[in-house]
Design goal:
By secondary structure, the protein is mostly helical. The protein has helices at 3-8, 24-30, 34-60, 62-68, 72-94, 96-102, 113-121, 128-158, 172-178, 189-218; strands at residues 160-164, 167-170. α3 (34-60) packs antiparallel against α5 and α5 packs across α7.
Amino acid sequence: MNQKENFLKGFIKENPLFVSVLGTCPSLAITTSVENAIGMGIAVLFVLVLSNWIISMLMVNEKMREWIKPVRIPVFIVVIATLVTVVEMVMHAYLVSLYESLGVFIPLIVVNCIILGRAEAFASTNKPVSAIVDGAGMALGYTFALLLISLVRELLGSGTLTIWGDLSLNLRFLFDFLRITPIDMFTKPVGAFLTFGFILAVITALSNAKQAKLKKAVK
Protein backbone atom coordinates (compact mmCIF):
# COMPACT_ATOMS: atom_id res chain seq x y z
CA MET A 1 0.00 0.00 0.00
CA ASN A 2 1.44 3.37 -1.03
CA GLN A 3 0.94 6.55 1.00
CA LYS A 4 -1.89 7.78 -1.22
CA GLU A 5 -3.87 4.58 -0.66
CA ASN A 6 -2.95 4.71 3.02
CA PHE A 7 -4.44 8.20 3.27
CA LEU A 8 -7.56 7.66 1.15
CA LYS A 9 -8.67 4.41 2.80
CA GLY A 10 -10.05 6.40 5.74
CA PHE A 11 -12.56 8.22 3.53
CA ILE A 12 -14.37 5.29 1.91
CA LYS A 13 -12.87 1.79 2.19
CA GLU A 14 -12.20 1.92 5.96
CA ASN A 15 -14.21 4.96 7.05
CA PRO A 16 -14.26 4.79 10.88
CA LEU A 17 -17.93 5.72 11.19
CA PHE A 18 -19.65 4.49 8.02
CA VAL A 19 -17.69 1.23 7.53
CA SER A 20 -16.15 0.25 10.88
CA VAL A 21 -19.05 1.88 12.81
CA LEU A 22 -16.75 3.09 15.60
CA GLY A 23 -17.39 6.01 17.93
CA THR A 24 -21.09 6.19 17.10
CA CYS A 25 -22.23 7.46 20.52
CA PRO A 26 -20.32 10.79 20.53
CA SER A 27 -20.73 11.11 16.77
CA LEU A 28 -24.53 11.01 16.89
CA ALA A 29 -24.65 13.17 20.01
CA ILE A 30 -22.63 16.13 18.71
CA THR A 31 -23.84 16.29 15.09
CA THR A 32 -26.65 18.76 15.79
CA SER A 33 -24.71 21.45 13.93
CA VAL A 34 -21.97 21.71 11.32
CA GLU A 35 -19.86 23.77 13.75
CA ASN A 36 -19.86 20.91 16.26
CA ALA A 37 -18.80 18.47 13.54
CA ILE A 38 -15.92 20.71 12.44
CA GLY A 39 -14.80 21.26 16.04
CA MET A 40 -14.84 17.57 16.91
CA GLY A 41 -13.14 16.73 13.62
CA ILE A 42 -10.27 19.14 14.33
CA ALA A 43 -9.87 17.73 17.85
CA VAL A 44 -9.78 14.14 16.58
CA LEU A 45 -7.34 15.11 13.80
CA PHE A 46 -4.93 16.64 16.33
CA VAL A 47 -5.13 13.71 18.74
CA LEU A 48 -5.07 10.93 16.14
CA VAL A 49 -2.15 12.26 14.09
CA LEU A 50 0.05 13.03 17.10
CA SER A 51 -0.83 9.87 19.01
CA ASN A 52 -0.09 7.74 15.93
CA TRP A 53 3.24 9.51 15.48
CA ILE A 54 4.29 9.24 19.14
CA ILE A 55 3.24 5.60 19.46
CA SER A 56 4.99 4.68 16.20
CA MET A 57 8.16 6.44 17.41
CA LEU A 58 8.02 4.45 20.65
CA MET A 59 7.36 1.11 18.98
CA VAL A 60 9.81 1.45 16.09
CA ASN A 61 12.70 1.20 18.56
CA GLU A 62 13.32 -2.50 19.20
CA LYS A 63 14.42 -2.14 22.85
CA MET A 64 11.60 0.27 23.65
CA ARG A 65 9.08 -2.02 21.92
CA GLU A 66 10.10 -5.01 24.02
CA TRP A 67 9.71 -2.94 27.19
CA ILE A 68 6.34 -1.43 26.20
CA LYS A 69 4.72 -4.48 24.59
CA PRO A 70 3.41 -6.11 27.82
CA VAL A 71 1.81 -2.83 28.95
CA ARG A 72 1.20 -1.23 25.56
CA ILE A 73 -2.52 -0.48 26.04
CA PRO A 74 -2.00 1.58 29.24
CA VAL A 75 0.91 3.36 27.54
CA PHE A 76 -1.23 4.14 24.49
CA ILE A 77 -4.02 5.47 26.72
CA VAL A 78 -1.61 7.74 28.63
CA VAL A 79 -0.34 9.21 25.34
CA ILE A 80 -3.88 9.74 24.03
CA ALA A 81 -5.15 11.16 27.35
CA THR A 82 -2.30 13.69 27.45
CA LEU A 83 -3.12 14.95 23.95
CA VAL A 84 -6.86 15.09 24.72
CA THR A 85 -6.12 17.15 27.85
CA VAL A 86 -4.20 19.65 25.70
CA VAL A 87 -7.14 19.89 23.28
CA GLU A 88 -9.61 20.33 26.14
CA MET A 89 -7.56 23.10 27.78
CA VAL A 90 -7.11 24.99 24.48
CA MET A 91 -10.83 24.79 23.70
CA HIS A 92 -11.75 25.88 27.22
CA ALA A 93 -9.45 28.89 26.91
CA TYR A 94 -10.09 30.06 23.35
CA LEU A 95 -13.27 28.37 22.05
CA VAL A 96 -15.60 28.57 25.01
CA SER A 97 -18.90 28.23 23.14
CA LEU A 98 -17.65 25.18 21.22
CA TYR A 99 -16.23 23.71 24.44
CA GLU A 100 -19.61 24.07 26.14
CA SER A 101 -21.43 22.65 23.11
CA LEU A 102 -19.26 19.53 22.86
CA GLY A 103 -19.18 19.15 26.65
CA VAL A 104 -18.28 15.73 28.03
CA PHE A 105 -17.58 14.33 24.55
CA ILE A 106 -14.19 16.09 24.42
CA PRO A 107 -12.60 14.09 27.28
CA LEU A 108 -14.35 10.97 25.96
CA ILE A 109 -12.02 11.13 22.94
CA VAL A 110 -9.60 9.29 25.26
CA VAL A 111 -11.69 6.13 25.05
CA ASN A 112 -12.82 6.60 21.45
CA CYS A 113 -12.36 3.25 19.68
CA ILE A 114 -11.08 5.03 16.57
CA ILE A 115 -8.05 6.53 18.34
CA LEU A 116 -7.04 3.47 20.35
CA GLY A 117 -7.88 1.18 17.43
CA ARG A 118 -5.48 2.95 15.05
CA ALA A 119 -2.77 2.96 17.71
CA GLU A 120 -3.04 -0.80 18.20
CA ALA A 121 -3.83 -1.87 14.62
CA PHE A 122 -1.55 0.46 12.66
CA ALA A 123 0.72 2.92 14.48
CA SER A 124 2.30 0.26 16.71
CA THR A 125 3.44 -1.81 13.72
CA ASN A 126 4.32 0.83 11.12
CA LYS A 127 6.89 3.57 10.63
CA PRO A 128 6.16 7.16 11.83
CA VAL A 129 5.46 8.67 8.38
CA SER A 130 2.95 5.95 7.50
CA ALA A 131 1.38 6.30 10.95
CA ILE A 132 0.93 10.05 10.47
CA VAL A 133 -0.62 9.57 7.02
CA ASP A 134 -2.95 6.88 8.39
CA GLY A 135 -4.00 9.12 11.28
CA ALA A 136 -4.67 12.09 9.01
CA GLY A 137 -6.71 10.00 6.57
CA MET A 138 -8.79 8.35 9.27
CA ALA A 139 -9.41 11.63 11.09
CA LEU A 140 -10.46 13.47 7.93
CA GLY A 141 -12.63 10.54 6.89
CA TYR A 142 -14.29 10.66 10.30
CA THR A 143 -14.75 14.44 9.96
CA PHE A 144 -16.34 13.94 6.53
CA ALA A 145 -18.81 11.48 8.09
CA LEU A 146 -19.63 13.92 10.91
CA LEU A 147 -20.17 16.74 8.42
CA LEU A 148 -22.50 14.64 6.29
CA ILE A 149 -24.67 13.68 9.26
CA SER A 150 -24.71 17.20 10.72
CA LEU A 151 -25.57 18.77 7.35
CA VAL A 152 -28.69 16.63 7.08
CA ARG A 153 -29.69 17.02 10.73
CA GLU A 154 -29.20 20.79 11.01
CA LEU A 155 -30.72 21.59 7.64
CA LEU A 156 -33.84 19.47 8.13
CA GLY A 157 -34.12 20.15 11.86
CA SER A 158 -33.44 23.90 12.02
CA GLY A 159 -33.33 25.19 8.46
CA THR A 160 -29.86 26.61 9.06
CA LEU A 161 -26.22 25.65 8.62
CA THR A 162 -23.94 26.98 11.36
CA ILE A 163 -20.44 26.94 9.87
CA TRP A 164 -18.44 28.58 12.68
CA GLY A 165 -19.44 31.14 15.30
CA ASP A 166 -21.52 33.87 13.69
CA LEU A 167 -20.90 32.49 10.19
CA SER A 168 -24.10 30.68 9.28
CA LEU A 169 -26.56 30.19 6.44
CA ASN A 170 -30.26 30.71 7.00
CA LEU A 171 -32.09 28.45 4.57
CA ARG A 172 -35.55 28.77 6.05
CA PHE A 173 -36.71 30.46 2.85
CA LEU A 174 -36.61 27.02 1.22
CA PHE A 175 -39.07 25.73 3.80
CA ASP A 176 -41.22 28.85 3.37
CA PHE A 177 -41.21 28.31 -0.39
CA LEU A 178 -42.33 24.70 0.06
CA ARG A 179 -44.81 25.83 2.75
CA ILE A 180 -43.43 23.47 5.34
CA THR A 181 -41.57 23.90 8.63
CA PRO A 182 -38.25 22.40 9.79
CA ILE A 183 -38.63 18.93 11.28
CA ASP A 184 -37.69 19.29 14.95
CA MET A 185 -37.21 15.52 15.24
CA PHE A 186 -33.83 15.77 13.47
CA THR A 187 -32.38 17.88 16.30
CA LYS A 188 -33.10 15.04 18.74
CA PRO A 189 -31.46 11.60 19.26
CA VAL A 190 -34.08 9.82 17.15
CA GLY A 191 -33.18 12.10 14.24
CA ALA A 192 -29.52 11.22 14.65
CA PHE A 193 -30.24 7.48 14.44
CA LEU A 194 -32.55 7.89 11.45
CA THR A 195 -30.00 10.00 9.58
CA PHE A 196 -27.17 7.60 10.37
CA GLY A 197 -29.27 4.58 9.39
CA PHE A 198 -30.36 6.16 6.11
CA ILE A 199 -26.77 7.06 5.14
CA LEU A 200 -25.57 3.54 6.01
CA ALA A 201 -28.41 2.08 3.91
CA VAL A 202 -27.39 4.19 0.90
CA ILE A 203 -23.71 3.26 1.29
CA THR A 204 -24.60 -0.45 1.61
CA ALA A 205 -26.86 -0.30 -1.45
CA LEU A 206 -24.13 1.36 -3.53
CA SER A 207 -21.54 -1.16 -2.30
CA ASN A 208 -23.80 -4.11 -3.11
CA ALA A 209 -24.55 -2.70 -6.55
CA LYS A 210 -20.84 -2.29 -7.24
CA GLN A 211 -20.07 -5.85 -6.13
CA ALA A 212 -22.91 -7.24 -8.25
CA LYS A 213 -21.60 -5.33 -11.25
CA LEU A 214 -18.09 -6.72 -10.71
CA LYS A 215 -19.41 -10.29 -10.40
CA LYS A 216 -21.43 -9.84 -13.58
CA ALA A 217 -18.36 -8.53 -15.40
CA VAL A 218 -16.29 -11.54 -14.25
CA LYS A 219 -18.94 -13.96 -15.53
